[in-house]
Backbone:
């Protein structure tokens, strides 16, 4: 489960970066790149708490 | 700027050296530094460089060198003392200066944290303006621009304040989770910004950077013209309170080795190099599309490049960094009256920060504010440095307040206040700019502290007159 969540988080980060790179190389229009990033954001915030450890600091 | 878990207070070993078993490895520091320096304020600082008319060479190489100096300051100023004494900044200051100077330090720190939190609230509030279309401040505005702006800032500030007072731990956890995504969003800002500025291949970067983006022209109205030395000194002194000012003694005291200070490079080159360049590019795109639109508003800037995800990044960066900033400001003020409720103090501090956020002057002059912060707190770092390394070599006593049992080491207090007076005079009379004054200021404090300590300790050891 943890491994799957990590892979999903990684995919979300990759999608965020890939959207920008594909726009840079003219393979994706800006509105589509924005949509990729919009979808990737909630995916990251749902998947990452499932595996990321937190060290309390206060 | 740097306001995440890295600088959070740690309620362990507050009045004793960190024991061997509690020491941390390099990986901890790499993660902490890398995550913490992508803050909401980077979205203001990057564009403000461009508004200051910086050229590509001055910007890129000024940042490279300035950030290197910051890393070396953490490595050779802060970490060696932190890993030898292994004490918090506050306890070490108390040992050297006495309780009264620590209270004064906390008051100054609390005020600066409050104003910085206000700037972060302002950054987040600009995201609301994209949807609600109220009038937002321009680069030269110092006063609120209308009811819509005031309501948006106050609503954001009150929300942040309540959460900081109630749910510090929740937002701290959220900040940890958000950090990698925020870094990715800043990279995306940069890539999209470069393409929008006309860059089509990596090999053409320097041509576009120097002829289209950072052309080095006149600054925007109300901004100081920035050259290489401005950029270099700003990057070096941006976190001056933490490295040369020694605030990070509290963090690096856990480091197994003093060279772990080099881990700060992860934060400097991700946050204060990549993120500033990326944010600066967003502003360049805006100016290219509408040269009359000189407003530095992170919400619209990020929205133009990355849409709703960009707005989410602005709010997240502002919120996750305002939260620990408000918390720390509250702690600093609470130390003045320890019996007071931390909840109430944090809440009141947040409300004050919200009121300061309504006035855009601090945010639009954020470069000056950051330099001022370094100037105010830097002298205490010089006092610690001289007390630790130099005083024993001169036959003088370190940790004088603790050794003599006094609540006020007037040599340290006077060195601080006289340095601030000298630096303020230099800036106000136009002899030097705020961005550079902390360098001579450090030497002034060091000299004053050594001389005044000599006088003080000579006087203290003199036998009483018969």
Residues:
């Amino acid at each position: 489960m943890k491994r799957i969540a990590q892979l999903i988080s990684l995919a979300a980060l990759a999608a965020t970066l890939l959207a920008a790179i594909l726009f840079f190389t003219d393979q994706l229009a800006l509105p589509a790149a924005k949509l990729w990033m919009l979808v990737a954001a909630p995916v990251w915030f749902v998947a990452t708490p499932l595996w990321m450890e937190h060290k309390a600091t206060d | 700027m740097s306001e995440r878990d890295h600088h959070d207070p740690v309620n362990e070993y507050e009045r004793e050296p960190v024991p061997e078993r509690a020491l941390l490895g390099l990986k901890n520091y790499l993660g902490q530094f890398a995550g913490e320096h992508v803050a909401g304020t980077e979205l203001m600082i990057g564009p403000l460089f461009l508004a200051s008319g910086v050229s590509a060479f001055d910007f890129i190489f000024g940042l490279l060198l300035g950030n290197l100096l910051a890393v070396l300051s953490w490595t050779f100023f802060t970490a060696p003392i932190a890993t030898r004494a292994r004490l918090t900044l506050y306890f070490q200051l108390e040992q050297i200066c006495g309780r009264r100077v620590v209270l004064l330090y906390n008051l100054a720190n609390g005020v600066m944290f409050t104003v910085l939190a206000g700037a972060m609230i302002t950054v987040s509030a600009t995201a609301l303006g994209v949807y609600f279309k109220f009038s937002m401040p321009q680069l030269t505005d110092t006063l609120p621009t209308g009811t819509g702006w005031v309501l948006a800032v106050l609503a954001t500030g009150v929300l942040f304040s309540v959460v900081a007072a109630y749910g510090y731990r929740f937002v701290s956890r959220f900040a940890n989770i958000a950090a990698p995504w925020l870094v990715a969003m800043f990279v995306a800002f940069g890539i999209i910004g470069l393409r929008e500025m006309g860059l089509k291949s990596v090999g053409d970067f320097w041509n576009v950077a120097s002829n289209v983006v950072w052309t080095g022209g006149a600054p925007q109205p109300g901004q100081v013209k920035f050259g290489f030395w401005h950029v270099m000194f700003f990057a070096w002194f941006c976190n001056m309170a933490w490295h040369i000012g020694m605030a990070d003694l509290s963090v690096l005291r856990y480091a197994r080795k003093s060279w772990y200070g080099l881990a700060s490079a992860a934060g400097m080159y991700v946050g204060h190099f990549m993120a500033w360049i990326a944010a600066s590019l967003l502003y360049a795109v805006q100016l290219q599309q509408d040269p009359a639109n000189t407003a530095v508003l992170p919400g619209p800037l990020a929205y133009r490049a990355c849409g709703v995800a960009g707005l989410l990044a602005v709010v997240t960066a502002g919120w996750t960094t305002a939260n620990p900033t408000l918390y720390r400001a509250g702690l600093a003020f609470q130390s003045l009256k320890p019996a007071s409720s931390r909840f109430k103090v944090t809440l009141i501090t947040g409300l004050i920060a919200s009121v300061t956020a309504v006035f855009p002057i601090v945010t639009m002059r954020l470069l000056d504010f950051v330099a001022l912060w370094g100037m105010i707190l830097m002298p205490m770092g010089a006092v610690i440095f001289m007390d630790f390394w130099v005083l024993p070599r001169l036959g003088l006593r370190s940790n004088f307040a603790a050794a003599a049992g006094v609540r006020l080491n007037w040599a340290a207090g006077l060195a601080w206040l006289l340095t601030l007076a000298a630096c303020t005079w230099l800036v106000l009379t136009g002899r030097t700019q705020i961005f550079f004054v902390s360098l001579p200021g450090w030497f002034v404090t060091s000299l004053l502290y050594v001389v005044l300590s000599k006088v003080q300790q000579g006087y203290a050891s003199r036998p009483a007159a018969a």
Observations:
- The mean pLDDT of chain A is 91.
- DSSP finds two helices and no strands in chain A.
- The CA atoms of residues 2 and 53 of chain A lie 11 Å apart.
- The radius of gyration of chain A is 14 Å.
